[in-house]
Structure prediction request, 764 residues.
Amino acid sequence: MSPSADLRQRLAEALTRALAAAGVDAGQTLPVLDRPKQAGHGDFACNIALTLAKPMGRNPRELAQSIVAALDAPGLVERAEVAGPGFINLFVDPAARNGVVHAVLASSGAFGRSQAGQGKKVQVEFVSANPTGPLHVGHGRGAAVGDCLCRLLEATGWDVTREFYYNDAGAQIDNLTLSVQARAKGLGPDHPSWPADGYRGDYIVDVARAFLAKQSVVADDRSVTAKGDPEDAASVREFAVAWLRHEQDLDLKAFGVRFDVFSLESALYADGSVERTVQALVESGHTYEDDGALWLRTTTFGDDKDRVMRKREGGYTYFVPDVAYHAGKWSRGFGRVINEQGADHHSTITRVRAGLQALGVGIPLGWPDYVLHQMVTVMRGGEEVKISKRAGSYVTLRDLIDEVGADATRYFLAARRADSQLVFDIDLARAQTNDNPVYYIQYAHARICSVLEQWGGDTAALSQAGLGPLTSEHERAVINRLEAFPQMVADAAADLAPHSVAFLSEGPRRGLPQLVQRQPVPGRRCCPARSAFGARCRDPAGHRQWPRPARCERSGAHVIMAERKSAVPDSSPNRAAPRRGGGLFTGILIGLLLGIMMALAVAVWLNLRGSPFAEREAPTVLPAVPEPKPAAAPAVPAADDGEGTVAGEAVKPPSKFDFYDILPNKSGEPASTGNRTVLPAGLYLQAGAFRNPVDADDQKARLALIGLTAVVQRLPVSDGFLHRIRVGPFASSAELDAARTLLKSNGIDSVPVRPGSVDDMPTR
Prediction:
């Protein structure tokens, strides 16, 4: 039993005993416990007195007072109060409440998981984009929501199969084929011979060029080599579908989404599934012919009118293969099926369900389940973005990933109810401020890692720590949110509502900065009780089981800072010495909340990936014909231009940042001898100097979030130590200048240095 269910059950049992002791006949009515909205109203509230008062003919407040008077739960309930018209507010004994901390530590990454699904099979179909172009933002929202659903179901004990269904035939594929053929023949959209419904995006040019070069391409479900003859329509069709499927696969992999099964609409015709389904419907007696067309009597099953199955001129309407496809899902043993689709599929739900009922094979009413997402509006600079050059007419998922990264894209697409309109603000997703939840989560992760490293204790021993000191109001609020986490996961899975996981994360993200603001973080000594809060945050194996909305990597630890410290070097000798004491306790405390609530709660989505910003693969796999390249310019000897830039040398952008790099014991810290620190040879930037080591850690975390790995160089001075932030080493002054430009664009001043020891000086 989870710590949440255990605590609630014990409280419910105590209230039931109190009812009996007070002479109250509750019958089949059981006490229901809820979390009060205001912390001052206790840890739990119960309305049992309000529920029973009317049938018993008693005053609800007086009934509540008699229940409270009879309540006897030492070691469980610290006190109980009657509030309002008859609510019972329960204040849980700290020892009982704090037990959730040890439960988290003992869960080995399984905190919040359950076996509610009992290993039953469930199939989730999502994305299901036809291979006629790049995935658009609507597909991206479907991918984010659908994958989150899968992860929620897995977390609650379901055996999940992810499925992608698409049409590789039909009118859209015909138009794709004609478009690629036209481009292969050198025709453009302005040519009179261009197909009327042809696709105009630049990607058609890429497909045609690859086809003419006789390239080979491998998608997750097919491998095709082009024949290079634009007159061979069948070859063009086959290659174009594979090429675009490969492109979709790359987008989905960059997005952290995988599939177990790919199903083709054409296969339903090829293996006779459509014909067998139609014959079964005819034999069921639910069809009729009228005006040369075959109709299904869907009104029998709740539709507003009957639907045509086979058109008068021949060929089946689009919902017929859908019925055959879902009948196949049932025959494959999926007692539960969930379709995540765009809201434009709403009209198909009733007719597909009607067709499945008409088959008479025992499919339950209301099967399958549907989760429909609304459209996405992309904004930049206060204006709507509608056009992608590559796609020609819509914003692609790749556009968003390239703009803001896969993490932010995924978070924002899944963080609101699927059936609500979504505005994707590119400026907010790119912002490196506390207004951007993804930035805040990642910054918090970096900060808590620094806190735990600074503390330096043995986290393995904290499972036995006494938790008595965790008594403050803020600590109680943190533990209460942790206790609520397992139930939140269960409810989100039951309601097919992954957005609620992100919604829960916004509470601590927005509501707890004052906890850190009130108490500073420095100091190495920390009592075991508060240290225990951070222990779970350093467990990488456990957190691998939980996906993330914004990548927090191997540690689930996060600290929310009230505000980031200034990057201006601090050399004031009069600055007050940092306070010692309980500040780190609070830092570790917040680490637990955001380590579990953000790396577990925020995150019931994003699987651990190799890099938060996945590099895209080239679409071709087998021999490609290289395009002609201009002759290389003759080498020019490099010369220093006097401003730190080397003439003739390409400026390399800073490498993309991986959060693994700043985990404790992962980044390359400077070697030290006694109190003297020596950095590796090379060029460096100094991005601040601080008396307070915590301020230095803050600056290091901030630099990490803009893609620069830094080290803290400790310099002994007359009254303590100076902690200098060094970014580098850089192999050339061009690389250094590129990093300096990046720092300046983020409001961070820096000066170039060429260190040889701790005594190096800036080289302005």
User: Anything to note?
Assistant: The first strand starts at residue 33 and ends at 34.
